[in-house]
């Protein structure tokens, strides 16, 4: 998760997860099934901007990658709109995978491929340069 629930007084993400050891009700759906979820949040990233410290973000991505090692479940990445911060993180993680595989990195090509799946990923020139 790449957003706070509230940023500059505006709701950016509803709290869709229950508090620790509590049950959350979502409409009329009910289940007694228990699920284990790892929820990771990076909140030092302004909407439509870039983080002040690239090392902190890279450390976060490395931690996410280590956490998902051996997992078969999908990883879900989101910010508030799902295109700016989310796109940068996906581009960064994809680039790390290519580096590990000793493959060349062509950021513009990666972004074009990503936009085939989700239009408008990476919103600003500053996010792309970051």
Automatic annotation (TrEMBL):
Pfam families with a match to the protein in the record: Y_phosphatase
The protein, known as: Protein-tyrosine phosphatase
SMART domains: PTPc, PTPc_motif
Molecular function in Gene Ontology: protein tyrosine phosphatase activity
Source organism (scientific name): Trichinella nativa
Domain called Tyrosine-protein phosphatase: residue spans: 1-130
Residues in Tyrosine specific protein phosphatases domain copies: 55-129
InterPro entries: Prot-tyrosine_phosphatase-like, PTP_cat, Tyr_Pase_AS, Tyr_Pase_cat, Tyr_Pase_dom
């Amino acid at each position: 998760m790449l957003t706070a629930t509230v940023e500059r007084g505006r709701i950016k993400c509803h709290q869709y997860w229950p508090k620790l050891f509590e049950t959350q009700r979502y409409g009329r759906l009910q289940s007694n099934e228990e699920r284990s979820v790892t929820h990771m949040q990076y909140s030092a990233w302004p909407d439509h901007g870039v983080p002040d410290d690239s090392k902190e973000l890279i450390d976060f991505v490395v931690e996410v990658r280590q956490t998902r090692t051996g997992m078969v479940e999908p990883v879900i990445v989101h910010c508030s709109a799902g295109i700016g911060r989310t796109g940068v993180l996906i581009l960064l993680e994809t680039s790390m995978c290519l580096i590990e595989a000793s493959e060349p990195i062509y950021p513009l090509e990666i972004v074009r491929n990503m936009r085939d799946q989700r239009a408008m990923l990476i919103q600003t020139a500053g996010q792309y340069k970051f």
